[in-house]
Amino acid sequence: MISEKLEKAFNDQINKELYSEYLYLSMQAYFERLNLKGFVNWMSVQVQEEHAHAMGMFNYLHERGGKVELEAIEKPEIDWASPLAVFEQVLSHEEFVTSRINALMDVAEEVKDRAALSFLDWYLKEQVEEESNVGGVLATLKLVKDDAKALLMLDRELAARVFNPPVIG
Ligand code: FEO
Q: Is the pLDDT of residue 169 over 90?
């Protein structure tokens, strides 16, 4: 059975993952408005990944005899100044999520729940990958600046991203 303290920390993180899904869905809508279909695709994969992250913890809490308590999801922003501004926010958001996963692991360590620590290892590795992917797009966007042709080339590249349902834990 999972401890009450760790159960609460997991529920908090489920909320953060669902907020991430919501934030990226709002960014997807922004790119729809710009008619940048490759960026739309990239964001829709991100949305599905965040949902999978939340569900991984949702299922794990049940597996451990815990109680899932869903909280209200904060309203995300709806407008950005540019695609570059979007990706700057994605990177800082992912850095924030990484810090929350670390904090969740701190709680697991505190209550000496080694099973939870081993489960959360997957999330830690996933965050390294997420920050690296986002950092790559951000670096290209910095080079693109106001070059519309280069932006459309990047859009074509982002159209190739596919969602592979992750095997969590
Ligand atoms: Fe679920 Fe992008 O972290």
A: no
